Amino acid sequence: MNTKTLNEIDYYRLRDEIAGYCVSTEGREKLLQREPLRKSEEIENLKNLSREWSVYFSAGRANPISGWEPVHPLLSVIKARGASLTLEQVHYLGQFVTSVNSIRKAIGLHAQELSLKLLEEQVAKLPDITDMEKKIFRIITPDGELRELPEIIAIRKQIASLNAKIRTVMQGFTSDQKLSDVLQSNVPVLRNGRQVLAVKASLQNRIPGIVHEVSQTAQTVYVEPEEAVLCSNELIQKEFELQAVIKKILLELTESLQPSIPAIKQALPVMTLFDDTQAAARWGQSRECTYALPAGNEPPLLLKARHPLLGEKAVPIDIRFMEGKRVLIITGPNTGGKTVSLKTFALLSMLNQSGFPIPAAEGTRLPVFSNVFADIGDDQSLDQSLSTFSSHMKNIAQAVNSAKSDTLILLDELGSGTDPQEGTAISMAVLDELIKRKSFVLVTTHQGILKNYGYTNPCCINASVEFNQDTLSPSYHLLMGVPGESHALDIAQKSGLPTEICKAARTYIATEQADVSALIRGLNRKHVELNKVQKEAERLAAEAQDKTDRLKARELELRRLESNLKKGKQQELNDFLIHSRCQLENLVRTLKEGEITREKTLSVKQYIAELTEDTMRLDRKIEAEEEKLARDEKKFEAEQAAAKKHATASNKKTKKKMSNAEALKYATSNVVETSDNSKAAGVKKAAAQLVPLSFAPGATVRTSSGTQGVLVEQTKKGVWQVQFGSIKMALKEKDLKLVQSEGSADSSANAYKPDISIELADDASNGIYERPVFELRLLGMRADDAVRALERQVDLCVLHNFPHFSVIHGKGDGVLMQAVSDYLSHCPVVAEFSKAPAEDGGAGKTYVTLK
To answer: Which residue spans adopt a coiled-coil conformation according to this UniProt entry (predicted)?
Structure first.
């Protein structure tokens, strides 16, 4: 079918509306894929099933089909060896089985009473699923909950007993008056799935147990008493056992359902057919629809047909094709309902061919069309350079070329959009061809010649939309066999057009004369206006070119921003690589404590190499994009310079180019002489602006993140050591941008000499620089060395926006621990720090969070 025409006549809107009456997801998806059918047997079968559903619902019976979630995707899970359905998926199967049994019972009970022969035949195709039903509902309830099976009850009792025991232990602590000054709260709280007590940090030794968490203020610690620890551990084991038992039950159920796969495949299409046909029946009842009879060899007939989207506003119309007449020409006034009549006939025909009921009276008969074409409305297309008339001709040409004896063609306002004489000539030739091909054609027109054509041609029949002469308004009824008048003057006068104009128009019609001289004067005026339009077009073209240049510059700016974002993402990947290296190093240390094999060592090395190679590959890709973007920016700047040079070529002949010395003299002459110092500063600034910037020691640079620093020295080709305040870093030259220094020339010489320098790491040749670590190990260091290492870590974290890390200093005699605590307490960038929980190192490890 022609999908464009189906969309124009609102077929898909009605199909979506009918699909909303489906109760299952699979039935709705199936109905949304339905297109008008071409085989009468399939159409009549669908309509007859819907008819029987209408009889069933009219008898006051409730819908026997209950909704179910999609079950077809579950077949692959059931079929796979070792796979297991989830509890939710088992519930889906339970819903489907319930719906199958419900419809079998309902149709079997009322089939004889209501003569539901076709529904009974379809129910007979449903397989026996009793065994599958027993298996499913032995495990779950109708609501989808897991039943209390013997193997589950015992474990749940043990879980309940352990929970009660834990509550008793907790109650013993909270009700003990001796501990009232120790506890922050008398109500236990949950931390990490365990019940704990909120204990004052200074008195935590009063309640021996495991510390699970420390408050942000470090005033409260959450302790799980030793008496509750064993119970909690046992509780976790029992809950794990429960989940294992449930998983085993579901796995056994899934394996037992494998023989039922053919039954599910057999039942599913029958159930979706039931859902689709009952949806059509319920929609038809809500719209007071009937089922069209097959036309056979008789002409089409629509009785009291209503457009379903107009609702109560729809005026019923009759459309009668007579024997041997296959072209219907509808005339009449504007807004009289001519186009609606075309759409109503086509839409109801397509709904009928989809097996749906239609909003029409009993006795309506419709043929089966192999295709439908339409030229409705104004399809003017600017992007395809199609005028109104061209778009009409394109649609009509497609319809004529595809026309057959069983094709339905709708032509709205045939012959419009061009010279009336030529338009009517084309219209009559088109109708001659369509009559020769014996197609069904519905035409609307205002052309008087076509009205005469319909009157004289034996294959055509005229019709008109009724017009009330008293009220001067259409009644929207369709009168068969009678051509109609446009009543343009009557409608114009009622719409507010002055009476004098209407009288003049009637005079023109009576005399059939027109003022040709006025047309010539109009053409002269149009010629003058054309010159103005051409000048305006040139101005607009210049503005468009300027806008294009600005858009191109904006595009380059956005590409630069995108490149910076990618570099930031690569930075995150580098951090991830370092983190992964730390994790793998920890893994290697763990392996050393146990059995070390060559395979394990090789796998760790291979993992590190792959991560490093991925990061380097992405680095190279970003560098290539950076180079391409730089070339495009230079090309754009060159184009802009050439355009500017071309635009000012005449002016440059009269101008003299200034030398650097003259420019310096001009710059210094414009300095405001408020003082000697300010004048000197102005001269220096002007001179500095004329000196080209270059990468050299002492030059001021800025990173992509906006941080400004000073070049110290070039460590190797393309890599510079840059000073940022008290920190020096080695960065690539391509990541730096030269900026004009605002200070004096010798300011860098007096700069603060840093005592911390961040150099290239051992693997700097691969493009990886020193970065902060997730876990700083200070074990075995002297206090001074440890503080310097910690200070270095904090600087790196601030530089790389690294907000969290941990410090391993051990307990020992407490010297390192105290030194770390003293430094963190007075460091201005540290937001907070706290001891690690017992299971992660306890007092020998400190968590640090930066501002």
So the answer is: 520-571
